[in-house]
Amino acid sequence: MAMSYKNVYVAQVAFGADMNQCIKAFREAEAFNGPSLIIAYSTCVNHGFDMSKSLTEMKKAVDSGYWMLYRYNPNVGFSLDKGEINNKFLSFLLGERRYALLNEKNPSKAKRLFKKAKDRAKDNFISLKRLERTNPTD
Question: What 3-state class would DSSP assign to 39?
Fold first, then answer.
């Protein structure tokens, strides 16, 4: 939504997935002459895994396509750095207690919702790829 204003720097990051992309986003946001928004993936105890493995979970989220890394600078354009949906999506969901519990309690509903989540992530990826092809001067 913030990108639609065309004067806001926006980045989505996950430190554990790509430290260099994260640092680059923070530097670009700081250098941008205007408002900047950085959306960072953050793990939580309610995700249901050993919190000492947070950086690994961030990487899994990005590697599966659950969380996408991108940067948008209105003066330069949009860059989708990582996040294509793949066959790791479902295993990422089931690796977190918050999703695995739904699968245990109601497998048919979980299957339907997991498919919906994957479809939505695919649609989001397609939209972001489309943004990547646009030029800020168009």
Answer: strand
